[in-house]
Amino acid sequence: MILDLFAGPGGWGQALSVLGVRDVGLEWDEWACKTRAAAGQLTVRTDVARYPVWPWAGRTRGVIASPPCQAWSTAGKRLGLVDQPLVHQAVEDLAAGRDTRERLLAACRDERSLLAAEPMRYLHALHAAGEPEWVAMEEVPDVLPLWKQYAAVLRRWGFSVWCGILNAADYGVPQTRRRAILLASRVRTAQPPTPTHAQLAEPESLFGPGRARWISMAQALGWGATDRPVPTVCAGGGPGGGPEPFPSGSRKTLAAARAHGTWTPRPDGVVLQSRREGTGWAARHGTRENRAADRPAPTFTAEAHRWSWSLRSNSQANATIRPLSEPAGTLFFGHRANECTWIAEPSPAQGEEAEEGGVPEPIRITAREAGILQTFPADYPWAGNKGQVFGQIGNAVPPLLAGHLLAPHLGVPLDPDDFTLAA
User: What pLDDT, on the 0 to 100 scale, is given for residue 74?
Assistant: First the structure.
């Protein structure tokens, strides 16, 4: 078996499925388990820290581990960095067969910090049975010192080990998501996969074709590499609930745009469904509250509203903002303070009309769009409400990155085209 600790909604599992293999995931979150079940992935709903290891001994080929990152992530309080000495102590003790977790957990500022030591409990028990054959682990960059500690232990046990920081964009993921990776193997030299993409396209050389340019959000979403992509001025809910941020009329425009690889509004206009008109709009047309009941809602046309759109990766002051012609920054979700939004600015062609009409307010990204930017299929069966779904997406490993990491261990060739994005 392939044992997937902290399996989440199935980032690693989706990669394995594409490669023709299945994992058994251990996961606590109810909705992540339901997502995995809907995706056909085997799952045990349990607390990884409490589940016994003996059922896996003598049966485990590979171990995957992506411990929860909230204690270490820049999107949170980062108390994992304060607890880091305790986590290192737990790894050292577990590698020697000493279980001091209860005492160390009582001293942790964030109880999730110690979860990063849990993979060592499984690895120590499996090592006694001559297992596993390989290990793959992933976390936020600040966990790299801990992965180096794991690497030292695994080398003593006869593994070849590599650990370091990889950028998901270098492997075709439309997101510059940097992660600390550990790869270990008993049967082959552990090394990172060869990057397939680069920030700038590389020319062909004597050694073969160069790397392709990073995949942009526009490419991944099927919107075409234009400066006038598809987000529209419309009503919108958000991760906490409410309607999807595209009404039916806009969705028809969206579907047509994707089919043609570009976007312009429908000639007959798209009816605005809420007060997302900008400051100049209300002065000319009135607000929804004081507009006559028999007066038609205002519309916008191709000539009046053309915008250049970018994605803001979260709501923090230092959030990454990228145009659609580039990959997204690391997507943060999980609570309203980390909403990810499309933001607009006038294109040069708009001139005075843009100033008069006002700039559209930010539009929250949809779960489908966020999933695609994580390289999940467009029809991936996410379970739960918007908040639960966005939390799963933000915590997941991009399946395409996972595929690059796992394929060498499995001896299976990886075809990136098998990881379908927009559909």
Answer: 52
